[in-house]
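Request: Give me one sample?
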Amino acid sequence: VQLVESGGGLVQPGGSLRLSCAASGFTFSRYTMRWYRQAPGKERELVATISSTGGIRNYADSMKGRNTISRDNAKNTVYLQMNSLKPEDTAVYFCNVRNGVDYWGKGTLVTVSS
């Protein structure tokens, strides 16, 4: 299993970013995918979840209304569109899949700062 996140960077408050996670090594279309984040000095927290077909999506309260998780099963990729970003959204964002064990990518850093 390999998960490779991309799309992070420095953005001003109120800005937007779209994160991507390219997956390989498993049958992507059969699995729920998740985005987590970990801010400096804090525990990793769940941000969003999308079911295998994309029909069910759930979001953490902290980012509800500002995020959209989506997936393209033909491209084995899951996305996280983040809008109205705040400084407290600064974190490393990780892609996750669970197949008996948790698999993680290396993460992509999002920094929200003026």
Q: What stands out?
A: The radius of gyration is 13 Å. The chain has no helices and eleven strands. The mean pLDDT is 96. Residues 8 and 103 are 20 Å apart (CA to CA).
